[in-house]
Structure formats: structure tokens, C-alpha cells
Amino acid sequence: MAVPTFVDRVTLHVAAGRGGNGVASVHREKFKPLGGPDGGNGGPGGSVILRVDPDVTTLVNYHHSPQRRAEHGGHGAGGHRNGGHGSDLVLPVPDGTVVSTVHGEVLADLVGPGTEMIVAQGGRGGLGNAALASSKRKAPGFALLGEPGDELDIVLELKVVADIGLVGFPSAGKSSLIAAVSRARPKIADYPFTTLVPNLGVVTAGDTTFTVADVPGLIEGASEGRGLGHDFLRHIERCAALVHVVDTATMEPGRNPVEDLDIIEHELSRYGGLEDRPRLVALNKVDVPDGREIAEMVVEELRERGLTVIPVSAASGEGLRELTFAMAAVVDAARAARPLVEATRIVIRPPSADGGGDFSVTSSPEGWRVVGTKPERWVRQTDFSNDEAVGFLADRLNRLGVETRLLELGAVEGDTVLIGDPDDAVVFDFKPGIDAGAEVLSRRGEDQRFEESRPAARRRREIEAAMDERAEGETRADVARRHDRSTGFGPMSYEIGSDDDPDA
């Protein structure tokens, strides 16, 4: 089996690195039985980055190795030691590479040396228990897991970035023409479809240096898949101008230069997107007596169409200087009108299922489905073998408003709640208003050894709740005094001799 040397379309499977897990650790030192949490965070996973490299001209490396994976992040450790960052995987691609999904959605068009695209973002590292500690949770006995990195299939499609594109029938002399005006050395033979891949040559005319590419095997019906041209027409989409290479000495019966030109133009119009490109016509093979005679017969007719027509011979060199300078003039005009393009850095992040950063709750036959960036990320970070970690997840979802939203929609205790990807969702039983922490905990996420009496905080919450039912003209102080009398909180206030006077 032949090994391809030029590949212009590949399907690539890329996987970013997973973030490292945080660690739950307690500092231990002599005479300090409880030194506090000191678990470090996990390191982020490496990302997969596509970068335009001018030295790369083909996608053949990805044809042989279609699966690429970045490095995972390191796990955290005790003593506040964070895990190492996973190394990014940088994949060099040719200038003019179009990145799309397997379904045809274009993600980016990479043009310009140094242009980058983060096609798969590395996963975040999980927080250690030192980072999770707070005034309300002094000694967390859990840590967060690292998130998985993005993993997807992409299609890389190369569109050669050339200034001039040569089009024409097979054996019209396109390869000979490139070999005559540049140092490119394509295969040349006297049979159709000699060229199986696009040829690229560098041409210098005066102070202008430009590139020339040809499209092999362009025949009638190419836009519908005949011949080889339909595979390579994409390579002239970026060209500043097109040069029709017309064979004036063909031995095939029934062909003439004008009809050949019309057929190729019809195929270009069927392909689309090339109508605005300037056209030059090179009447090739005028070194042959019959070829020169036919060229003289059609040159005026073509010029009447407004075309720049130049009789040339790739074999003898006749007309090549005039042709290269005509191409250089078109390239100079196109470059002058082109805006300055700077290298860009593109980050592709898959959109959340609900289109936003919060969440949505919908009813389904399986149960209540919660969809959103934050809930799904929190579920991925949770170690469900740790009751305290599950309680922390419940607190986070409650603060976000998930429980309130479920109650508003009519959810009752015992209903099924699903969070995450429909094919791999985490299933919960809805139990509103209960503590989900470990049994040894007085509050979710708080070590019992640090338990404190918090009557003042409870009093403030109760007063806030009573404010909604206050009478007209009552102030917060009035509500607080009424609350204290009814609960016996703090010093009692009463009038001497009133019904509230305990000594009366």
C-alpha cells in the first residue's frame, strides 16, 4: 500500500488532560493534635493547541497518528503542596487549515504564522481541604476531584495559501509552467492525471515574490466529483488571482481553447466563491507550430471578453517573463488592499446545554432534570464516597437556588433528580431541607470538634423572617423586641406592673 506524502484532510481525536484531585490532609506536629487542614490543590490538565507553523505544509503526520492526548495534572499533597500543571500539547498545522466538527460546523480558520487555537481545554484541578476551609467550615474532611478535560473529534482541512492558482484541463502544461517559473519540480509526463497532489512554487518577478499553486485533474464535471479536481478546488479559494492554462496544441478531437476556457469557468462557477478573482489566460505550447497558429486565432476573441491573454511556452520560455510580471501586478494590488492580519489566539469552549452560566430545571419521564454549567461542574468535582463532600455539594446547589426552583415546580420528597449529561447523569432522591453531611457533623462541612453555639446567628435569621409580617410602622427594633419576648432570648424587657412583669 502506498504511503501518502500529501494529505489535506484528516479526522483527529483530541483529548485534553484531566485536572488533578485535591487532597484532604490535616497538619500534624508535636503538641499540636489538630494543626488544621493543609491539603493542596490539584494541578490543571494540559490543553490541546493547534498552532500555524510555516514549515509545515501537509497533514500527513496526523493521517498516521490520528489520536492525540495532553498530559494530566498532578494530584495535590499535604503541607499545602499543589499538584503540577499538565503540559499543553501543541500540534503544528499548515497555514490555511480549517478546523471543523465531524458534523461540518466550522470552528476556526487558521491563517497567519503563529495563529493558535485551543481546541480542547484542560480540566480544572480540584481544591484541597485547605482551600475549602472557612469560618463556618474550619476542618473540611474532604477535597474536590479534578475535572476531566475536553475530548472531541475534529476535522482538519488544508486550503493551500497561494497567491496565484493555475487551473486547466489535464496535460495543459500547469506542472511544466510551475517548473519553468520556479524551482518546484513536479512530476511531468504526457498522459492525463500525472499530477495527483497540488504543486506549490515560489516565483520572483522584480521586487515581488509570490506563490503559485495548481489544481490537478480539473475536467468537465469536477464540481460534481469527476476527475481529481473536486478534491483540490479548495486549494485555490484563497488565491488572489486565477490563471487559465489553455492547451493550444491538444491532440484530442473536438477541443479548442475557447471551449476549454468556458468549461473550466463553468466548473468554477458551480463550485462557487471564485467569481471576484481576477483572471489571466496563458495560451500554452505556442512553441508547437499548430499551437501558435491556434493561439493567434483565438487571442483577440478572448481579449474582447476583457481578459488579459498571454501566449507562452513552458518548453521554450517564450512569454514567461511577461506572464510572471502580470501575475506580480495582480498580487501587489491584492496585498495592498488586504488588511494587516496579526496572529490570533482562539479558545473554543463548548457551550453549556442551557446556553447560560446558571441552570434550568425541566420535567422528563425519568424525573427532574437539572442542566447548567455550575451544577454539572460541581457534580464532576464531588467524591460521592465521602458523605461530607456530598453534603458540601448539597449546600452549593441550595445556595444556587436549585432546591427552591424544584419546590416551585412542584417537586416533592422522593422525586428523582438528574444532574449532568443525559447519557451519564448523576441521580439523586429529592429531600428538601435536610442535612446531608456525615452523622458526626453538627452542620454540613463543619467538624464537631470545632462546634460552636451560634444563637446570635439563629436570632438574626428569625428576625429577618419575621420582618415580612411586621405591622405598619414597626421598625426592625420593634420586631426584635417582640421576637425576644416570645423566645426568651437575652434580657427580658417589660413594664413594671404589666402582665409581662414576672413579679406582679
Describe the structure.
- By secondary structure, the chain is an alpha/beta fold.
- It has 3 domains: 1-158, Spo0b-associated Gtp-binding Protein, Chain: A; 164-337, Rossmann fold (3-Layer(aba) Sandwich); 360-450, GTP-binding protein OBG, C-terminal domain (GMP Synthetase, Chain A, domain 3).
- It has helices at residues 60-64, 129-132, 174-181, 229-232, 257-271, 289-304, 320-337, 373-381, 387-400, 402-408, 455-466, 476-487; strands spanning 9-15, 48-52, 67-69, 89-93, 97-101, 106-110, 116-120, 151-158, 164-167, 200-205, 208-214, 241-247, 279-284, 308-311, 345-347, 360-364, 367-371, 416-419, 426-429.
- Helix 11 (455-466) crosses helix 12 (476-487).
What class would the helix/strand composition place it in? alpha/beta
Work out the helix count. Answer: 12
Overall tally of structural domains? 3
Shape annotation:
elongated
Compute the CA-based radius of gyration: 37 Å
Summarize the biggest pleated sheet: 6 strands, mixed
Q: What fraction of the residues are assigned to beta strands by DSSP?
A: 15-25%
* Percentage of residues assigned to helices: 10-25%
Instruction: Provide the CATH superfamily of the largest domain.
Output: P-loop containing nucleotide triphosphate hydrolases
Strand tally: 19
What CATH architecture of the largest domain would you give? 3-Layer(aba) Sandwich
Q: Which stretches are poorly predicted, pLDDT < 50 over at least 5 residues?
A: 188-195, 352-356, 434-453
- Briefly, what CATH class of the largest domain? Alpha Beta
Strand order in the sheet with the most strands: 10-11-9-12-13-14
| Distance, first to last CA | 109 Å
The CATH topology of the largest domain turns out to be Rossmann fold
Residue-averaged pLDDT, rounded? 79
Keywords: Cytoplasm, GTP-binding, Hydrolase, Magnesium, Metal-binding, Nucleotide-binding
Binding site for GTP: 168-175, 193-197, 214-217, 284-287, 313-315
Cofactor: Mg(2+)
Family: Belongs to the TRAFAC class OBG-HflX-like GTPase superfamily. OBG GTPase family.
